[in-house]
Amino acid sequence: MNRRDFFLACTATAVLPMAAQASTELKDYTPGLIQDALDRGETVFVDYAADWCSTCARQERIIGQLRGENPAYNSAMTFVRVDWDDYKSHDVTTSRNIPRRSTLIVLKGGQELGRIVAGTSQADIKDLMDKGL
């Protein structure tokens, strides 16, 4: 193998995992993001979280693991993370009666399909995600 082929192989090996990871990331909420996705007919998984919240971190690890194990989640839903510190008093939170950070909800159309508040059970989170399929 010559140097050029070796370099291309190394680059492809480094870039492909990053591309796969990018499709499984949570989108950071900006005003209108969730409603725009719902208006397009998408199912939206919303994670109300704070960077300092250990429960939120546990939930996000489980969500990432489940999404990695079942790619159907990634094609069936848009995943949005709402920063609790920035949006706890915003309409995106108050209109849905979100009681606290570490709340997970699944939305489709004008309906809430399910909700978990401060739960970290992998089975419960999987059940919630399955409602979006």
From TrEMBL:
Q: What SUPFAM superfamilies has UniProt attached to this entry?
A: Thioredoxin-like
Q: What is this protein called?
A: Thioredoxin
Query: Per the record, a Pfam family?
Result: Thioredoxin
The Thioredoxin domain covers which part of the protein? 41-130
Superkingdom classification of source = Bacteria
